[in-house]
């Protein structure tokens, strides 16, 4: 298993480990242990080793190491990497020209000292919540390979959860970071809409798309976000001075139904720790979820329509049909969805005049089985791939930052067949308050209320 972000960077800075040796070890770990996981689509061995050698030479010459010095990472396969074709998980892009430069987010991480070593599996064109890819195969959950990893950034979450990589990059339109982070038991951040650059990232629905990192601890996630959020790398890890006395409330109604009993207990413990019983019921949540569906389908469908007209057979049929359906949506309902989004966004932003943090579940419970991908909602079985975003999709409309955090390992109830599978929550804050969220995550992890160990993989 690879070391965490902070631990590895500190070893490199202290010169107790050479970057080249660390990168070789990571590449070897991926080669030996990804076969049963299928999180990785390409290994960037030549580039990674050349970057490691250059960094070793720089450090040996007395250069100042960056905050992510020598830390390997992987990227969801929709980020541009110079010299490589960006496939976005689809054979439809296999013959497009290679990228001429790295995505800006990757450039920022490299400036901080990090080294990209792999591209990671995803749902085709980021349209899904399960990472079952017709071209690259299914990514398994490292806690139980018979279960879903979640998506669409499933490879990003699973590779970190399994200890193949210290951190990774994913994207989140309607929950594609938060859902797999929850199901795989890692930390993930959907930043404020527009906070991180999308230059060189293949789009899905431009008015909702965000990018963000995964890591195994809140402190590691904090350090990576600090590098992503600026063109000038920080020389020291972020502090925990952004919390103070926080006004915390739980989202009720829609967000309090159909919860796994251990998930409910975990949220209750967080509320007790924060000294509050305050519950907020957001207005029109079901309509918000429907609006997110409509906007995503329409924008995604129209983005792909020219290629679908000429090369529809290159798409996974399930993805193709959803994109075509979105492209055929009449303008009226889509316009109404955008108008509703403006109203809903203002409603949520208004809540942050009285509260600093909102707590909600990330998914209703643990990862469903691959062979029986079903959730039970209101007493009836429904398809998991269409409903794993039940609690993430409405929040996406508001454009606010959301931290997906794993609950600690717990003894499961005897009537559930999912012993010790991860459960996750969302911590939600006002726009621009990522530092507050991450600092709170660090404190709650230290208090034993959030966080869990990596999967025992393989």
UniProtKB/TrEMBL annotation:
Residues 22-438 form the Amidase domain. Gene3D superfamilies: Amidase signature (AS) domain. InterPro entries: Amidase, Amidase_dom, AS_sf, Carboxybiuret_hydro_AtzE. NCBIfam families: amido_AtzE, PRK09201.1. This is AtzE family amidohydrolase. It comes from Acetobacter suratthaniensis.
């Amino acid at each position: 298993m690879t070391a965490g972000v902070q631990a590895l960077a500190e070893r490199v800075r202290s010169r107790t480990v050479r970057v080249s040796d660390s990168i070789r070890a990571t590449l070897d770990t991926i080669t030996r242990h990804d076969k049963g996981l299928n999180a990785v689509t390409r290994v960037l061995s030549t580039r990674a080793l050349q970057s490691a050698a250059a960094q070793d030479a720089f450090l040996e010459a007395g250069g100042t190491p960056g905050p992510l010095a020598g830390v390997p990472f992987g990227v969801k396969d929709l980020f541009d990497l110079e010299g490589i074709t960006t496939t976005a998980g689809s054979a439809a892009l296999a013959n497009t020209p290679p990228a001429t430069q790295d995505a800006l987010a990757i450039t920022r991480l490299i400036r901080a000292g990090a080294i990209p070593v792999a591209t990671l599996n995803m749902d085709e064109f980021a349209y899904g919540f399960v990472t079952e890819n017709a071209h690259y195969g299914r990514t398994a959950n490292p806690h139980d390979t018979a279960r879903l990893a979640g998506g669409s950034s499933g490879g990003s979450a699973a590779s970190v959860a399994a200890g193949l990589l210290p951190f990774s990059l994913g994207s989140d339109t309607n929950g594609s970071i938060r859902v797999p982070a929850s199901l795989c038991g890692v930390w993930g951040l959907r930043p404020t809409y527009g906070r991180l650059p999308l230059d060189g990232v293949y789009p899905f629905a431009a008015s909702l798309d965000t990018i963000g990192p995964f890591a195994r601890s809140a402190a590691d996630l904090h350090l990576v976000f600090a590098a992503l959020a600026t063109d000038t790398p920080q020389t020291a890890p972020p502090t925990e001075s952004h919390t103070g006395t926080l006004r915390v409330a739980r989202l009720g109604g829609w967000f309090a139904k159909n919860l796994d009993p251990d998930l409910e207990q975990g949220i209750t413990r967080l509320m007790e720790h924060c000294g509050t019983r305050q519950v907020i019921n957001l207005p029109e949540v079901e309509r918000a979820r429907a609006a997110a569906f409509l906007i995503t389908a329409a924008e995604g469908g129209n983005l792909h329509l020219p290629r679908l007209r000429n090369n529809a057979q290159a798409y996974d049929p399930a993805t193709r049909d959803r994109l075509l359906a979105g492209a055929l949506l009449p303008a009226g309902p889509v316009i109404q969805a955008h108008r509703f989004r403006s109203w809903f966004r203002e409603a949520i932003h208004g809540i942050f005049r009285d509260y600093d943090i909102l707590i909600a579940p990330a998914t209703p419970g643990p990862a469903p089985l691959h062979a029986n991908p079903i959730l039970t909602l209101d007493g009836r079985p429904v398809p998991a791939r269409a409903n794993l975003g039940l609690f993430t999709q409405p929040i996406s409309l508001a454009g606010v930052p959301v931290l997906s955090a794993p609950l600690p390992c717990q003894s499961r109830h005897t009537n559930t067949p999912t012993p010790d599978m991860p459960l996750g929550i969302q911590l939600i804050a006002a726009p621009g308050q990522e530092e507050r969220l991450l600092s709170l995550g660090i404190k709650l992890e230290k208090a034993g209320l959030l966080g869990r160990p990596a999967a025992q993989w393989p």
